[in-house]
Specification:
The protein has about 575 residues and is α+β, with helices and mostly antiparallel strands. Helices cover about 25% and strands about 25% of the residues. Strands 1-13-12-2-3-8-9 form a seven-stranded mixed sheet, with no helix packed on it. The two termini are about 20 Å apart.
Length: about 575
């Protein structure tokens, strides 16, 4: 199993407030540049306690916006001293020697901050240079005194390099930047999407459609239109939007589901790392608005690729549409998160619809599978398509031991059995057990992975451990060895549900989301329906692990005591 490992960027400088990632002041050889960037052999002397760089953002995609919707990189200065610093006496130089000289009136008071925009612009708050996201050195002077020099490391988008606490010698990377405000403790992850799609916030989204675009999207044809967007105070001139869904489909006079494309209009546009996402309404399958979050979390913690999930409240042309689940798209960003380095080479397929003249639902074990190509390089790698066809051929006959062994040449064994166990524990009624909602991933090793999708209808019924509608799952269960290997994964998954304490997580989410769900004017669910769904979910989270343990013990006596 390959999972993303995020390395926290941290560094502790010397007692000097201008400490650097290498723990030295000045350049690595102990010499320094002059303030205008020219080399000298004179060791850098920093006058401490006057003015320091406090936080830097070198690739701002959605953290700070200024006039004309610009999203500049930025530098925050901090006054750790006891005297105000005249803005007109400040100079900042980048490592190429370009110098900005302050001209603004006023001062930075003791304990105060001042934010400058590194956008090559003009004006009192605009630096005449950019900051490289691959790393940069900045030097600050007040009058004739050099007060700080900072080596900024390479940083991901929307991640800042900050002192914590303010003015301290300790530096850390964080995906929770605070321009113009007190720095906070570093985020647990340096991936902004991990924070945007989490249980830490409910995003505020406002869409404005003109009349023509509103009419375009308000159709059963699922046409793309565009809207002007503000999300969490950041304005975008255009995002592409369309309606989506099947049983949960609704038009704009109801509570529709949406697919959102952030970067179609501006290819470089992102929101907290996202190129796109879906807004699910929970109309049919999830009155609790929590099941996607819980089920996909369990999948990811089990080593599977699965979307990250958050929440948003939506306004459209001034009308409140209530709360939505905000679901990560199946795109190269999601691939990269699960399989670092594979984002531009991995491929995702949607098996829900026939294509190429093959009717019905796509699946394995019955000729070449009829899958839709959802994400990946164009044209598709013939070896990727060959892996799908070979996997399907391997399970096209009897499930004997030789055929099962052959299958693992084309299907990632551990991931497939884990996927089956995940579907069983959450009882994914609308998933591969149907089969209906699921995905397939093939990476550069040309092994097939099954990927969770459509996880709203989960935690609603007891598990059916030995039943799979999906042909590959059903085929595996016809072989004693494959069935036993799957049973071990079922036991591991049961333990993981309890280790993650999903039951308590659900109760905490219910308390947090209840006021927003109750205020949703467009939800079709009555209070009774919501209460019943919550009761059912809580029961299944509590009971399903023990239920599957009994299932396994009845079929493979003693396996539960020995599988570890």
């Amino acid at each position: 199993m390959k999972l993303l490992s995020l390395l926290m960027l941290t560094a502790c400088g010397s007692s000097n407030p201008g400490g650097h990632p290498n723990g030295k002041d000045g350049t690595s050889d102990g010499t320094s540049d002059t303030t205008d960037g020219s080399d000298t052999d004179v060791p850098l002397v920093i006058v401490e306690g006057i003015l320091v760089v406090n936080e830097v953002m070198s690739d701002n995609e959605s953290t700070l916006q200024i006039d004309a919707d610009a999203l500049p990189d930025w530098v925050e200065l901090y006054n750790p001293g006891t005297d105000p610093i005249p803005l007109s006496e400040i100079r900042i130089a980048d490592e190429s020697g370009v110098v900005w000289e302050g001209q603004a009136q006023g001062t930075i008071p003791p304990g105060g901050t001042w934010v400058l925009y590194a956008d090559e612009g003009t004006g009192e708050n605009h630096l005449p240079f950019l900051i490289s996201s691959e790393g940069e050195t900045l030097k600050v002077s007040v009058g004739l005194d050099v007060t700080d020099q900072v080596d900024i490391p390479a940083l991901p988008s929307d991640v800042s390099w900050q002192r914590y606490p303010d003015g301290d010698a300790y530096w850390v990377g964080t995906a929770t930047p605070t321009p113009g405000a007190n720095n906070t403790a570093a985020s647990d992850s340096l991936d902004p999407t991990d924070l945007a799609l989490s249980n830490t916030m409910i995003h505020q989204i406002e869409w404005t459609f003109n009349a023509a675009q509103f009419d375009i999207i308000n159709s059963y044809d699922e046409n793309w239109g565009w809207a002007e967007v503000t999300i969490d105070g950041i304005h975008y001139a255009q995002w592409d939007v369309r309606l989506k869904g099947s049983a949960s489909f609704d038009l704009m006079d109801g509570k529709p589901q949406f697919k959102v494309d952030v970067n179609q209009y501006l290819p470089e546009a992102r929101f907290r790392g996202l190129k796109g996402f879906k807004l699910h309404n929970g109309n049919v399958m999830d009155p609790t608005r929590t099941r996607d979050y819980l089920s996909y979390q369990l999948a990811r913690e089990s080593g599977l690729m699965a979307p990250r999930v958050g929440w948003a409240e939506l306004h459209v042309n001034g009308n409140y549409y209530g709360i939505y689940m905000m679901i990560e798209d199946y795109d190269n960003k999601m691939i990269e998160h699960a399989f670092p380095g594979d984002g531009d080479v991995g491929a995702i397929f949607e098996p829900n619809e026939g294509q190429g003249g093959n009717p019905g639902w796509g699946d394995f074990c019955n000729g070449n599978p009829a899958f839709n190509y959802e994400e990946g390089p164009l044209p598709p790698d013939p070896l990727v398509l060959g892996a799908l066809n070979s996997a399907s051929a391997a399970c096209g006959g009897a499930a004997n031991d030789n055929a099962v062994a052959q299958l693992w040449n084309f299907v990632e064994k551990d991931a497939f059995l884990t996927y089956m166990a995940w579907e069983n524990l959450v009882n994914h009624t609308d998933g591969y057990k149907a089969p209906n909602n699921w995905r397939v991933y093939v990476g550069p090793d040309y092994k097939v992975w099954l990927v969770p999708a459509g996880a709203e209808w989960t935690w609603d019924f007891p598990p059916s451990t030995w039943s799979f509608g999906g042909q590959l799952g059903s085929w595996c269960l016809q072989n004693t060895g494959c069935k036993r290997d799957y049973a071990i994964k079922v036991l591991e998954m049961a333990d993981r549900v309890e280790d993650l304490d999903l039951e308590t997580q659900f109760q905490d989410l219910t308390t947090w989301l209840d006021p927003v769900i109750d205020a949703d004017p467009r939800s079709p669910h009555s209070d009774t329906t919501v209460a019943n769904a919550r009761s059912s979910t809580n029961t299944r989270l509590h009971d399903n692990p023990d239920t599957v343990r009994v299932d396994v013990d009845n079929t493979f006596p003693g396996l539960g005591a020995s599988y570890n």
